């Protein structure tokens, strides 16, 4: 069984995230999309709302499981038996941040990270953009699945 | 069958390239390592030498095939039935270049590109470095498989 | 009438911002410099102080209007009839952030963003630097208009 | 008269270049698209072919002039009375290169450079990509105007 | 006397920081490692803990002094008679940030900043990573001196 | 004796290079400025011209020696007993390139590389810019020492 974890705060999950999952699906038996819960972070969407958006995006797809977790991503991988991490990269700043994280996860948990580059038409779509639109009553739904 | 192409000039194939292939292996049924032949480029190592270095690096591994090709990488993928491209990314400059290429291959050939970030201890190893050492009688063998 | 908006938190407006406005002026009939008000952000300079610094910098220049706004920048542009956004870019990190924003404003509001690269002698001048100097009783006035 | 120069090797002029000119047009009385001729560079498309592609892209638009030049871009600007340079920026590597050039043109010729960020759907389109497709009999026409 | 300041929040001091100091030591008569105290920042490790980690890392080395300070780094340099600042740079994002800071310190305090690039095997080690591991009961000690 | 090598093609040596040497001087007993000779590279200025420009820039300064070499920079360091390499970094692209080189020189020759960030007013000055001006009869002397 090849399982991959796609983890994040997903505040909220966007059509950019959805695109990454759809492109990674052919490579794995199962993809677990999991929301990392961190009490220190103030989120705009509640955990329940965030889980609901992800679930609706994939509509009970047999190879996708939606979950949440606390603690280190690497330890959650061990628990759910995921050997791979999936990450989308939008630009060079994302890349630099993700690169450090991938190397720490390799060193500490022997986890392999696979990167997908965001599709051109979605490269500007981020959770930050959606939150900004949401707070200011803009058309945030355009970027939700 | 999930097949991936790892294409490049590989002038020469380094321990950095070898690392990427080893890390990608668990995800695929077969990885084809193919040297793109381009008459305009002056290479330091001959095609035969370059093929030999790759072959010795994997020593008849049953899931690895070594080949060479001319023309567009995307068309070679169709011919050998590879649905995925594998790329190693060492830093933000690599990333930017590879990002454009991946998006063109998606648009023109509907090919998916998977990125692996080079292991920390190999992030400075490149074919250019090896060529520089080789030309100046430095210890280039240190970075060959 | 070609109108451009130069929007920001301007906490505070620096000689770097002033330079961008002066360089953009020949292109437009009017430039509106507007401070985006965001209750969540804690600012070091009050809105009144920030407006005052901008006003003094341009001293009733007939083609420059100073204002403040809440909500989305794109909607404020529609309201004041500005067809262009002006942005200064200091470095690659600025660039990446601004690039996403520009593409969202194009997609959501059909707004065009023009970029000016900060003059060499001012490329290290930022509101963050000025705030740091201000808080620690350093010579922050050096970087104000 | 506000005149801008859009200069380049344009080997060849792509739909990405065309997009930049169309977006800059509302700001200027005239845009001069000029091919810089450099004997040292080996081009894939001849000067005549390159001029023809640009001309056909804009089809005698009254505000667009197509030309070629030798020597420094800054001196050509003086000659044709262009006060502005227009540049498209696709990514952080472009940005860094263009930033140096803009600052040299400011210092040496007092020329102002305006930057436009490439539209998301065209950010991977470059003359290099088109040349690669052309040489390998790929669908290069897809990216020409 | 050539003295250098290595300043930071050091929340906490990592083996990456230790590596920079060891590599800079041959160049100076004395290196002062000083923790900048900023009441606005919430730190995970207390000032006492942070000082203790640094002290234990260098174990009374005759050429290293450990200290803390408030206010501007540039003014602290004057006070302790340090003519140089030492900084480690892990990647392009660090570089951009540090570049601005170095130019401000040059302009405001005539201080010279020397940069060392983090060793390959430590390039992913940061205080943020250690804090994340610490909060989630991961093996954070691996990255402390 | 603390000796540092400042090596490069220096085609030609610019006021940017001169600035780096002047800023590094207080740290070393001797700085050797050496032109790396590479038969494959076509240079615009001859080796003699390049050496002459460097010599005139420092006018028999007692702590500066001007030289040329072939082969690997690391081996030349051993020969002249230089323990440090000095490099100027203008931007993130320079940084990425220099970072790889520094790590290879550390690994292969146990050499330490010190980086200085180019002064703001000189960050756009490069040998490429000077060559471009020289070839097109522009004011290239402005950027020579």
Features:
homohexamer; 145 residues; alpha/beta; Rossmann fold; five-stranded parallel β-sheet; 5 helices; 21% strand; globular
Q: Describe it for me?
A:
6 copies of one chain form a homohexamer. By secondary structure, chain A is α/β, with parallel strands linked by helices. The first copy, chain A, has one domain: Rossmann fold. Chain A is built from 5 helices and 5 strands. Chain A has helices spanning 15-24, 47-58, 73-80, 92-109, 127-135, and strands at 3-8, 30-36, 64-69, 84-89, 112-117. A 5-stranded parallel β-sheet of chain A has the order 3-2-1-4-5, sandwiched between helices. In chain A, strand 1 (3-8), helix 1 (15-24) and strand 2 (30-36) form a beta-alpha-beta unit. The longest helix of chain A has 18 residues, at 92-109. Chain A starts with a strand and ends in a 10-residue tail after the last helix. The model of chain A has no long low-confidence stretch (mean pLDDT 95).
Chain oligomer state: homohexamer
**SSE pattern of chain A:** EHEHEHEHEH
- The best one-word shape of chain A is globular
CATH architecture of chain A: 3-Layer(aba) Sandwich
Q: What is the domain total for the residues of chain A?
A: 1
CATH structural class of chain A? Alpha Beta
- Give me the side-by-side strand order of the main sheet of chain A: 3-2-1-4-5
What percentage of residues of chain A falls in helices of 4 or more residues? 25-40%
User: What is the total tally of β strands of chain A?
Assistant: 5
Can you give the mean pLDDT of chain A? 95
Could you tell me how far the N terminus lies from the C terminus of chain A, measured between alpha carbons in angstroms?
28 Å
CATH fold node name of chain A: Rossmann fold
Rounded to an integer in angstroms, the radius of gyration calculated over CA atoms of chain A is 15 Å
Question: How many helices of chain A?
Answer: 5
Strand content of chain A: 15-25%
Would you identify the CATH H-level superfamily of chain A? HUPs
- Overall SS class of chain A: alpha/beta
């Amino acid at each position: 069984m090849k399982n991959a974890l796609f983890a994040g705060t997903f505040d909220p999950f966007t059509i950019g995230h959805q695109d990454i999952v759809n492109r990674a699906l052919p490579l794995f038996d199962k993809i677990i999309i999991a929301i990392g819960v961190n009490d220190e972070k103030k989120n705009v969407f509640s955990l329940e709302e965030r889980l609901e958006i992800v679930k609706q995006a994939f509509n009970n797809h047999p190879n996708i499981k939606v979950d949440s977790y606390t603690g280190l991503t690497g330890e959650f991988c061990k628990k759910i038996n995921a050997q791979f991490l999936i990450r989308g990269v939008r630009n060079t700043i994302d890349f630099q941040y993700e690169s450090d994280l991938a190397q720490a996860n390799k060193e500490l948990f022997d986890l392999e990270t696979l990167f997908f580059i965001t599709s051109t038409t979605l490269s500007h779509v981020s959770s930050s953009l959606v939150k900004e639109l949401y707070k200011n009553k803009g058309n945030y739904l355009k970027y939700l699945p």
